[in-house]
Amino acid sequence: MPLTKIVNGLPDTIPFTGPEELERRMGRRFRLRLGANESVFGISPLARDAMKRAVDRVWRYGDPGNRELLDALAVHHGIPVERLVLGSGIDDLLGLAVRAFLNPGDTAVASLGAYPTFLYHVAGYGARSEQASYRFVGDAVHPLSNDLDALGDLARRSDARMVYLSNPDNPTGSWHTADDIRSLIGRLPGSCMFVLDEAYAEFAPEDVLPAADFDDSRLIRMRTFSKAHGMAGGRIGYAIGTPETISAFNRIRHHFGINRVAEEGALASLGDREFVRQVVKRVSEGRDDYARAAKSVGLITLPSATNFVSFDIGDGTRADTLCGLLLDLGCFVRKSGTPPLDRCVRVTVGTEADRRLFGDILERATSEMVR
Amino acid sequence: MPLTKIVNGLPDTIPFTGPEELERRMGRRFRLRLGANESVFGISPLARDAMKRAVDRVWRYGDPGNRELLDALAVHHGIPVERLVLGSGIDDLLGLAVRAFLNPGDTAVASLGAYPTFLYHVAGYGARSEQASYRFVGDAVHPLSNDLDALGDLARRSDARMVYLSNPDNPTGSWHTADDIRSLIGRLPGSCMFVLDEAYAEFAPEDVLPAADFDDSRLIRMRTFSKAHGMAGGRIGYAIGTPETISAFNRIRHHFGINRVAEEGALASLGDREFVRQVVKRVSEGRDDYARAAKSVGLITLPSATNFVSFDIGDGTRADTLCGLLLDLGCFVRKSGTPPLDRCVRVTVGTEADRRLFGDILERATSEMVR
Interface pTM (ipTM) of the complex? Predict the structure, then answer.
């Protein structure tokens, strides 16, 4: 087949093997689905009603300009609508960012072990990546976090044209302050774009998110309805950037790519702030439950500003063993194979019932490890 | 902004201005929405029930492997699942095809005035296009149709690496037989992919669609749930190709790009063959109504194997005038500005009530033209 040079050189690997595929390979269903940071607390009742009504209008294409939702987001953030664009989830927007700003052969920088879909797009468009190691520091407040100094240094050294950071971070759950972020942007090469993935923004402490009107031509922020709003299967994310960046996205994006049922659901969910507040509160309680469950089996959890928790198992081999046991016992969780992240197992906050069952499974798994 | 060379060179124009944007500019709503070839007959009751139930599971990501729907499609078409991939509509899949097979500077061939989104992607990936004129032949069975000989000749002359054809065709409604298609493929340069957009497949006469197991390594067929299945706002399309082509798509596609509500709806709709049969029957009746409405005002309609009808107004200037009058009178329709297509106005088949109202509006518009 006469594939392009770039596509011909790509590996067959995909960013994530989904739980459905794991279930097919195992020949049975998971009892707990806590590996994809989905929001087990579901969707706002307003979003549910809006989506069920919207099903009756699904014969119509959505508005390719997405104006109703964009206008609401502009009001929500207090920024001009020209600074906003929708995508079918942050994954889609990451692809557009790479395509708009990275020529083949250009360099992107990210943390080693960071969100694989970003690097999937970097390779997919023929660009290259360099990665800075996560920082592991014994018993600091954040024992395991992105190393902003290392990212900034690597970006300068490699003359990077794009840096990717998730804040709050996936897969560690750690976070940096808005001051740290601004300082990192200040140290980047002049022509280097900064992609700030804020998928977990709603769960973050107050000092983590730069002000909505913080304006730097290199900054592209990404948000989603997949996490706190509970609409992972809906595929609605959005990017905030300068009007010039948004205009570039509009020149290449898939204009009819947004499902209209999800778009109407997102609009309704945006109006239900109390629902999101409740989700954030319940997730916080769930993280505390996980910390107690870890403690009761002699483990610790890392601080998290997200809807998941990293269980620190101490080293990569033991963490691999525990992760395998949890999967065998019917609990879908994930772990990174990259040091120093490989010492952790990542567990999405479940419902109260999920957490009780997870506690039992964790106890059983750790007792099997001791034997 | 340090945009890539390709994106920096792209125009701000987008393939389609949606009816919502036209309404915003006019300051009022359309009375009839017959410009986007949406299926006014809605969705299967089975799809509706499936989607309303699926809303309650929208907190979960869809299966990135899309196996349940792909397996059903494989059975439906009697082909191996390795020959199938989903996309968020044919638009998405056209982008993947261009990205997989066209290097920057490579040439794609299509008909002048054919589906603009294909050319949007060709330009968007830095490739170039050459276009063969549609053929207009007085009072043949198909007075206005793609010119397959011209397409084949142009592909050879320009050493094209991709040819795009819609069959049945949008925007004319005309069609060619499967034999014609096979013959065209046979005449293409050896390294030239053939993208066959079969969005209107369900409306086509029996001899139009190549057999499902017709196998040519250069052929990529595209289908959708947006037309006969009535799910335009759901964004589900699929491509059929060789396992090698499908594997290339899987190396670059957005793996979590499909809305899970729509995916469950598509699965249910695929199982409701009687619904699709009824839609096809009602669309056929609607086309006959339009032919009568045209005749009563001294116009003709072109034969159509789709869910829309081209009204032949005789020349471009008169067609522009009529199209403007229809829009002014609250009827969203579309027309091409490219000769020889510019002599036509394209009108989606509406419900019986829509058609009565359209007949009245057409009568009023044509009477204003005479004055």
Answer: 0.96
Burial of A263 (0-12, 13-18, 19+ CB in 10 A): buried
> Which residues of chain B lie closer than 8 angstroms to A64, CB-CB?
14, 16-18, 21
Contacts of B67 in chain A (CB under 8 A): 20-21, 24
User: Measuring CA to CA, which residue among A208, A232, A227 is closest to residue A303?
Assistant: A208
The DSSP letter of residue B271 is T
B187 SS3 class: coil
* pLDDT of res. B283: 98
Strand, coil or helix: what is A348? strand
Contact by Cβ (8 Å): A134, A146: yes
State the pLDDT at residue B371. Answer: 63
Question: H or E element: which one contains B287?
Answer: helix B273-296
At a CB cut-off of 8 Å and minimum separation 6, what does B132 contact? B109, B110, B111, B112, B147, B150, B151, B153, B154
Cβ burial of A287 (10 Å; 0-12, 13-18, 19+) is buried
Which of chain B's residues have a Cβ under 8 Å away from the Cβ of A71? none
**Which H or E run contains A280?**
helix A273-296
CA distance to partner chain A, nearest, from residue B143 (Å): 30
Per the CB < 8 A criterion, the answer to whether B236 and B262 are in contact is: yes
DSSP state of B342: G
A244: which 2 tokens?
């010039």
**A67–B252 CB contact, under 8 Å:** no
Number of A:B CB contacts under 8 A?
A: 254
Q: What is the C-alpha separation between A85 and A79, in angstroms, rounded?
A: 12
pLDDT class of B1 with cuts at 50, 70, 90: low
DSSP letter at B62 equals: P
Burial of A21 (0-12, 13-18, 19+ CB in 10 A): middle
Angle between helices B260-270 and B45-55 (to 10 degrees): 150
* Beta bridge partners of residue B33, listed in sequence order: B332
pTM: 0.97
With an 8 Å Cβ cutoff, are B63 and A250 in contact?
Answer: no
Helix (H) or strand (E) holding A370: helix A352-370
Q: Do A247 and A216 meet the contact criterion of CB atoms below 8 Å apart?
A: no
Residues in chain A with CB shorter than 8 Å from the CB of B3 are 100-101, 248
Q: What is the pLDDT of residues B344-365, one digit of tens each?
A: 999 999 999 999 999 999 999 9
For residue A266, what are the CA distances in angstroms to A94, A238, A255, A256, A269? 20, 11, 18, 16, 5
Where do we find the tokens 């499909």? B258
Structure tokens at A363: 């106890």
Residue B236 and residue B85 in contact, taking contact as beta carbons nearer than 8 Å: no
Taken in order of first residue, the domains within chain B and their CATH numbers are 5-42+274-370 (3.90.1150.10), 45-272 (3.40.640.10)
| Helix orientation angle between B67-77 and B260-270, rounded to the nearest 10 degrees | 20
pLDDT score of A1? 66
| Contact criterion met (CB < 8 Å) for A103 and B4 | yes
Predicted confidence (pLDDT) at residue A370 exceeds the cutoff of 70: yes
Structure tokens at B183: 């013959």
Residue B261 to residue A234, Cβ atoms within 8 A: yes
The partner residue sitting opposite A7, judged by closest CB among B1, B248, B265, is B248
**Number of DSSP helices (H) and strands (E) in chain A, helices first:** 13, 14
pLDDT, average across residues B251-265: 97
Cα–Cα distance measured from residue A355 to residue A351, given in angstroms and rounded to the nearest whole number: 6
Nearest by CB to B16, from A3, A192, A255: name it: A255
HSE-CB of A179 using CA atoms within 13 angstroms:
2
Closest CA to A24 of A323, A332, A231: A332
